[in-house]
Amino acid sequence: MSPPKSANSDAPTVAPTVAPTLRDATEGDLPSIVDIYNASIPGRLATADIDPVSVASRRAWFQDRDPARHPLWVAERDGRVVGWLSFGKFHARPAYAATAEVSIYVATNAQRSGIATFLMTTALARAPSLGLTTFVALVFAHNSRSVSLCQKFGFQTWGLLPQVAVLDGIERDLLILGRRIDAD
What we know:
It is a single chain. The chain has 184 residues and is an alpha+beta fold. It has four helices and eight strands; from the N terminus they run ββααβββαβαββ. The protein has a single domain (5-136), classed as Aminopeptidase (3-Layer(aba) Sandwich). A hairpin with a 2-residue loop joins strand 7 (156-167) and strand 8 (170-180).
């Protein structure tokens, strides 16, 4: 079976009326995950990477994910990976075990079609079953769409790291956005 195709290909824009599905990522999804990530680099909004990453360079990151505690999910539409969400370990020290850094990336032609909202809604709903009580998101202050997404879900600004990244010669601020998760 061939790996799912990424929505960053030359395929037509994904129709927002088709409901996405969610599943744990497999190693076969890594090319699509990397394609989506690399497509975000030129916009200088979502990552501090300035050059594309390779599938090989992301294998250790992928293998560090634990479906029971810090999963990596992919959202699909029509058999194509259109987005992904990663629960990263916030810090290696044990006292931070219930806190996860949440990262969401959406394929260029699937943006503004509800994928990020779907991923965040699911993450918040499933967080208690993963043993998570706190989400943290590290977002560039000039990334208004990501800031808005987080605020829509009740994230608050917990910190500001001024001028810590240089992208194309411009110093950028990094926001630390956070949200506690209530177990229902």
